[in-house]
Structures are given as C-alpha cells and as structure tokens.
Specification:
- Strand 28 (362-364) and strand 29 form a beta hairpin.
- By secondary structure, the protein is mostly beta strands.
- Helix content is 0%, strand content 42%.
- It is built from no helices and 30 strands.
- The protein has a 4-stranded antiparallel β-sheet, with no helix packed on it. A 4-stranded antiparallel β-sheet has the order 2-3-4-5, with no helix packed on it.
- The chain has strands spanning 22-28, 37-47, 50-58, 65-69, 76-81, 96-98, 101-106, 116-121, 126-132, 139-140, 147-149, 152-157, 159-160, 172-176, 183-188, 203-205, 208-213, 223-227, 234-239, 258-260, 263-268, 283-288, 293-299, 313-315, 318-323, 331-336, 341-347, 362-364, 367-372, 382-387.
Length: 388
C-alpha cells in the first residue's frame, strides 16, 4: 500500500505510537450523583487544547450530557445536560466543530420524539435544537456523527425515509443548513440490495458522499455506497460477502470510511475469519472507489477480539482503531496496511481500565485519546490516553 499520506491538523501525530505504547486512564465517570455523565459515547472533539464529548445518559435530567475534558489534569466539567422531551435525549455520536460551534445528534427526543440535530455554543454553554426528525419521508433515530463540509452538515438516520423495512423506513442521508436548520433528505435507502440501516457518517471525497450501510447488498451483509449530494443519485459500489467459505471479506460495516490518498479504509463488525460467535470477528479493509475493488487487510481472530465499530485513525504508517468486544472487554489496535501486521497496545479487562471501546480515537499533543463505554473505577465508563 505504501506509506500513508501525511496530513496536517489535530487528527494527526508527529510520531507513531509503538506496540509498547503507554495506556493511561484520564478520567473515570463516577456515577456518584444524578449530575454525573453516564456512558461516554462517540469520538472526542479537540478544541483549543481541550477535548469535548457526550454521554448517552446522566446529567440533571438523565438524558445525557456534553462535557469538557482537560487532558492535562483529567478534570471533567459537565457543560450541558440534555433536558429530554422536546430538547433532545440520548446523544449517541460524538460532536463535530464548525465556525466555533459544536453540532451533534440525539437519537431520541425532539418535537416528535424521533431524534434531533442540535447546536452547542462552548462559549456560553447553551444548546438549541436545529431540526426535529419526524419519521415518515423524513428520517428518525440518528446514531452517527455529522459531517461538516463548507456551509452544510451531512448526516444519516438509522430509520425513516418511507414505509419500507417493515414500516420503520430503511434510513436516510440528509443535508442541513446550520444557519437556518432547514433539512433536505438527499437519499432514502431502499432496503434489500440497495442497503438499509446506515449507522455511520458519510465522508466527502471528490465531490461525492461515500459511506456504508450495515445491512443489505447482494448478500445481505452490508455495502459501500456513493451518493451525489446535488442530485441524490445513489450507487452501490460494493456488497460484502461474509465469512470464509463465502467471500471472507467481512460483514456488517458499521463504521465510517476513512479516505487516505485516494483509498477508503474501513472495518466490518463481523465476517472474515470464523470465531467470535457464529458470524466471525470482523475485518479491516481497503477499498478503491475507482476500481470498486476491496482488499482485506486483516481478519480479526478470537484471541484479538472483534466488533470493530469505529472509524480508523491514520497515524504515520499505521491505522489505529478499537475493538469493542471479543477477547476480554475490547482492545485498541494498530494495523500496518502494507502487510496487515496488527498489534494490540492495550486489551481492556472490564476492570478499572474500562471496557467496550466503540468510538474512534483522536490525536492531541502527541497522544491518542478515546472513550470506553463501560466499567472503570466508577462503573460508568472511562476516558483514556495511549502515548508512545
């Protein structure tokens, strides 16, 4: 594959953490009182030397929180508690930043109880709902991060978009104007061979939106799509085939793709090598969107773990990611795409180090930071750091 392209910005490091990288718990969510955050979800957002994130539950109304982490001290400040009801409930994905504002989604709450898009001002600590999902031809139940591109936010909903998929709708891809909150549904997933249940944010490459649907495609094991954001025309580029004996290329892609130098890198939750239950442990793959060719870089083994649910983070010559389950209570992995060599800098025990990391890692000041949804000293999840 050659050396991964170098990019400037907060998501890239000047050095590659080694397999012997140091693992540190930065913060354990204590669950001491009703105002604490419970279950950190999604990727952390670097902003002005701090890291910002969301919890699925906790806060003054028990509907989730937005918090700020000081990486130097490990101190966490709860900046906002979702009120539930019309104000939104249960933020499932991490925040994205644009123009000094933070944007995100809640999978529940809003005027129709079907989820929201919200904006949060870190300077004032105030949040407001930009869009209420209403089901039907609109989407519902957003679970993925938004994509901020220019003056538009792109996102997906797990359901909605019509009466297909047993009446729930198969999901949508939408565009939203952050200035006005006006939403436009670009694409409604048709189900079956056309895909359903998009669980990850799209990425923008060459003027097109690329992403994955966890299910559907020719074999029913998920697919990679391309959608024209102007016309709404959608194309299935690749259908996953499942386990060895089938195609061994993976099944159920639930993470966003990562574009690097014209190649899209991603993971599947299952498929690949047998083990980790009946459906396999999952894969890491590279996809050439021009040739529509997928290459499996690694098939996870039962000893390594499985359920790769998060977007990969390229750091120099390695792709870093998390496994939420399998051996122990999940792991952090680093993969060299040129030869498929994989190392496990940390395997979670489900004790004080937490368990079930399901979000992408993010880089800040020479280290990688991440979230584990469960366990830890307080029992409600942890924030951790991996450093060389």
């Amino acid at each position: 594959m050659g050396r991964l392209a170098w990019m400037a910005g907060a998501a890239w490091l000047a050095a590659t953490p080694s397999p012997a990288a140091t693992f540190t718990i930065v913060h354990a969510f204590p669950c001491r009182s009703a105002t604490d955050g419970v279950t950190p979800k999604g990727r952390l957002l670097p902003f002005r030397g701090a890291l910002y994130g969301v919890t699925l539950a906790g806060g003054s109304a028990g509907a989730g929180t937005i918090y700020r982490l000081d990486p130097a001290t490990g101190a966490v400040s709860i900046l906002y508690s979702f009120p539930g009801g019309a104000g939104g409930k249960s933020p499932y994905a991490g925040l994205v930043g644009s123009g000094g504002q933070f944007y995100g989604t809640t999978q529940e709450g809003g005027a129709a109880g079907l989820g929201t898009v919200f904006v949060f001002d870190p300077a004032t600590g105030k949040a407001r709902v930009l869009h209420d999902f209403r089901g039907g031809q609109d989407g519902k139940a957003p679970q993925a991060e938004l994509l901020a591109a220019g003056h538009t936010l792109y996102g997906v909903t797990l359901e909605g978009g019509g009466a297909n998929c047993a009446g729930f709708g198969c999901g949508t891809l939408f565009a939203l104007d952050p200035a006005t909150g006006a939403e436009r549904v670009i694409f409604r997933f048709p189900g079956d061979a056309g895909g359903f249940d998009p669980e990850s944010a799209p990425v923008l490459a060459g003027g097109a939106l690329y992403g994955t649907a966890a299910f559907g495609g020719a074999a029913g094991d998920g697919l990679i799509y391309r959608i024209d954001p102007a016309s709404g025309a959608g194309t299935v580029l690749y259908s996953f085939g499942g386990l060895e004996g089938g195609h061994g290329d993976g099944a159920y892609p639930r993470a966003s793709l990562r574009p690097v130098g014209g190649t899209l890198y991603g993971t599947t939750d299952a498929g690949g090598m047998k083990g980790c239950g009946d459906e396999g442990c999952g894969t890491v793959f590279a996809f050439d969107p021009q040739q529509r060719r997928e290459t499996v870089l690694h098939r996870f083994t039962p000893e390594e773990g499985g359920n790769a649910l998060a977007e990969l983070t390229p750091v120099a010559d390695a792709l870093w990611g998390t496994l939420s389950d399998g051996a122990g209570s999940g792991a952090v992995f680093a993969l060299r795409p040129e030869n498929g060599a994989l190392s496990l800098p940390h395997q979670f025990t489900g004790g004080e180090d937490g368990g079930n990391p399901a979000a992408a890692l993010v880089a800040l000041d020479g280290a990688l930071y991440g979230t584990a949804e469960a366990d830890g000293a307080g029992g409600c999840g942890v924030l951790f750091r991996i450093a060389p």
